[in-house]
Design brief:
Layout (H helix, E strand, L loop, with lengths): L3 E6 L4 H12 L3 E6 L4 H4 L6 E5 L5 H12 L3 E7 L14 H26 L5 E5 L12 H21 L5 E7 L5 H7 L4 H14 L8 H12 L10 E4 L14
Parallel strand pairs: 1-2, 1-4, 2-3, 4-5, 5-6, 6-7
Helix pairs in contact: 1-8, 3-4, 4-5
The structure holds nicotinamide-adenine-dinucleotide.
Length: about 250
């Protein structure tokens, strides 16, 4: 009997890699998509990982790769996790940046899910799309990123309605700060004093007082893929340590 499998995009690092590890612990095969050319070498000889190197910004290559890798799979779920950031005010956001960001963050989840749909379309199937707190609450400089993540949330609600008649669910996870490459890329280059100041001001803003570990986000993704969440569809789960629960005009309350 074929092992059940899930397809995970952005599986080479951060949240996607944590989902990959959790799925392997549960005996689920991972069809792991990423543009990172090191991905196959990292899983060489490993049981249960099928690495596929593809640029998700290229819709034709992505659809072809997804059709090929899912062709014989007993596909139980799709995790559209890969994402990129960009920061510039809207009046300085070049269309090239806008297009690249939307092609990876918003268009790829549609392309991947549509290409895998023939294999997923059965009761119990699930799609989990990864958004961000910036899908709901913006910061200056995040016009392109916030638009792509709000788009993911809106698209997921519509996907849930399209998929429901087939017994397939679709949900979004919207993380806040997660201790991934983004976190270390930002903090590591700073000198000790600046780093510690930045880190404590972020911690003070988060009601739970810390960023999430990637494994904590992976647990939510796994729950949304599993029958334990069988009545949840079209939802966005904020996984932000309470960051967006608090009114910002009294930051310490
Ligand atoms: N880390 C955070 O604090 C945070 C917060 C909110 C939302 N998110 C979202 O979570 C998701 C995962 O983020 P992460 O922090 O784990 O990031 P990460 O950079 O550690 O991992 C992203 C992965 O996506 C892959 N990827 C990027 N562009 C790609 C492309 N064109 N084609 C194929 N693969 C590509 C990268 O190679 C990488 O392996 C993203 O959608 C991000 O927007 C992250």
């Amino acid at each position: 009997m074929t092992r059940p499998s899930i397809l995970v995009t952005g599986a080479a690092s951060g949240i996607g890699e944590a989902v990959l590890r959790l799925a392997l612990e549960h005996g689920t095969t991972v069809l792991a998509l990423d543009s990172d050319p090191q991905l196959p070498a990292r899983h060489e000889g490993a049981d249960g990982v099928v690495p596929v190197v593809v640029d998700l910004a290229d819709p034709d290559a992505t659809a072809a790769a997804v059709r090929e890798v899912t062709a014989d799979a007993d596909l139980a779920g799709i995790v559209n996790n890969a994402g990129i950031g960009a920061s510039a005010p809207f009046f300085e956001t070049g269309l090239e940046v806008w297009e690249r960001l939307h092609s990876v963050n918003l268009r790829a989840p549609l392309v991947v899910s549509a290409a895998a749909w023939p294999r997923l379309r059965k009761p119990g199937g699930a799609i989990v799309n990864v958004s961000s707190i910036h899908g709901r609450a913006a910061l200056a400089g995040l016009a392109a990123y916030s638009a792509s993540k709000s788009g993911v949330e809106g698209m997921t609600r519509a996907m849930a309605l399209d998929a429901a008649p087939y017994g397939v669910r679709a949900n979004t996870v919207a993380p806040g700060f997660v201790r991934t490459r983004l976190w270390s890329d930002w903090l590591d280059p700073l000198d000790d004093e600046t780093r510690s100041g930045e880190e404590s001001s972020i911690r003070a803003m988060i009601p739970l007082g810390r960023p999430a570990e990637p494994a904590e986000i992976a647990e939510i993704v796994w729950w949304l893929l599993s029958p334990a969440s069988s009545y949840v569809t079209g939802a966005t789960i904020q996984a932000d340590g309470g960051l967006t629960a608090r009114a910002s005009y009294r930051p310490n309350h």
